[in-house]
Amino acid sequence: MVYGPEGCGKTAWLRQSAELLRDLGFDVIYINPIERDFLAEVGIEDIRRRLIEILREATDNAWIKAAWAVIDLTRELVKAGRGRIAVLIDDAFQAIGLDRAATYVKGGLLGLIEHPPETYERIIAIAATSEGLSRWEIGRHRWASLLTMWNMPREGFKQLYDQVPGNKPGFEEVWKLTGGNPSLLARLYRESWDTNLVMKRLIEEKKITPEFTNKWRKYLEDAINDPDTLWSPDIPEELINELVRRNLILYLMSDRDTRLWIDVPPPERDLELGIGRYVAWQSPLHREAVRRALESLKQ
Ligand SMILES: Nc1ncnc2c1ncn2[C@@H]1O[C@H](COP(=O)(O)OP(=O)(O)O)[C@@H](O)[C@H]1O
Ligand SMILES: [Mg+2]
Predict the structure, then answer these.
(1) Do residues 136 and 10 lie in contact, with contact meaning Cβ atoms separated by under 8 Å?
(2) How far apart are CA 84 and CA 26, in angstroms?
(3) Contact at 8 Å (CB) between 84 and 76?
(4) In the chain, which residue ranges form alpha helices assigned H by DSSP?
(5) Which protein residue's CA is at the shortest distance from atom 4 of ligand 1?
């Protein structure tokens, strides 16, 4: 299971992986119920057709059905003797429901690997999510291995920044706003680099309401300066849950051992970017949105 901030590049990574795996001779099934996107590059045409059949009815329910059907269809691929299969499940927990996420991963994905209907050479099953709650739900079990993906590292992000056309703020400023989050880069570009506007939208999307802000002001003010203050045992669990549920922070950042991360781990601590050893803001802009909400209530 791969977990990481919203817009850090999970989908891009999975889609790139799909290409790579196909070139390595894998049958690849990719599905993303939230973006209503799928790909079935499989050696048996009938399986692709059946997936399309389910998705013909263009409803949320059809996508949930399809996510479950992917498991059965993959079993059929194994049964038919396809030896290399990759199942890439992108952001499906939101659609199938948090309560079902564990069943999906254990009964579905792990079941494929551990109880196949036929022998196979290799099965790769990956589920990606930016939902902090599903990360807990799955990550606490032994049967899923969790990898975290962070925003882009500085050098890669610089390459992306260089390709953005038109007048733009200097790289250093963009880096300090986004912390390397490519989706925020896209948003800033689309909003003509109006940071205030992007922040206002974040405040709305994340429901950073006056009630929320005032209730937790004492803790939030500290966390803005150093997110690791949220790691203290005195912090109410309710606040942590609220921040995780809104995807404002990552709580319990893994050790920066590269084997626990996809690509480059974030720095151990970088308070300018809002990254603590154990807790991190999803991006500096997420933190600034909270800061803005706190300040606007003071006046
Ligand atoms: N390595 C990368 N290079 C260039 N663009 C990227 C890269 N990773 C992600 N992006 C772009 O950034 C945006 C957000 O990425 P996405 O994969 O949708 O994030 P996530 O799935 O984690 O929410 C997309 O527009 C995507 O194309
Ligand atoms: Mg995605």
Answers:
(1) no
(2) 5
(3) no
(4) 10-23, 45-56, 60-79, 93-96, 98-103, 111-114, 132-139, 154-163, 171-178, 182-190, 195-205, 210-215, 217-225, 237-245, 284-298
(5) 160
**CA 190/CA 250 separation, integer angstroms:** 26
Ligand closest to CA 34: 2
Go through 89-110 and write b for each residue having 16 or more CB atoms within 10 A of its CB, e for each that does not. bbbbbebbeeebbbebbeebbe
What are residue 168's phi and psi, to 5 degrees?
A: -150, 155
What band does 137 get if pLDDT is binned at 50, 70 and 90?
Answer: confident
pLDDT digit string, tens, across residues 200-254: 999 999 999 999 999 999 999 999 999 999 999 999 999 999 999 999 999 999 9
Q: How far is the CA of 13 from the centre of ligand 2 (A)?
A: 9
Query: Where are the domains positioned within the chain?
Result: 2-149, 154-257+268-297
Write the CA distances from 106 to 26, 100, 139, 254, integer angstroms: 22, 10, 11, 22
Residue 141 has which token pair?
């079990």
The pair of three-digit structure tokens given for residue 72, joined into one six-digit string = 């059965």
Top CATH class of 2-149 equals: alpha beta
Ligand 1 center from residue 222 Cα (angstroms): 31
Counting every residue written for the chain, the total comes to 299
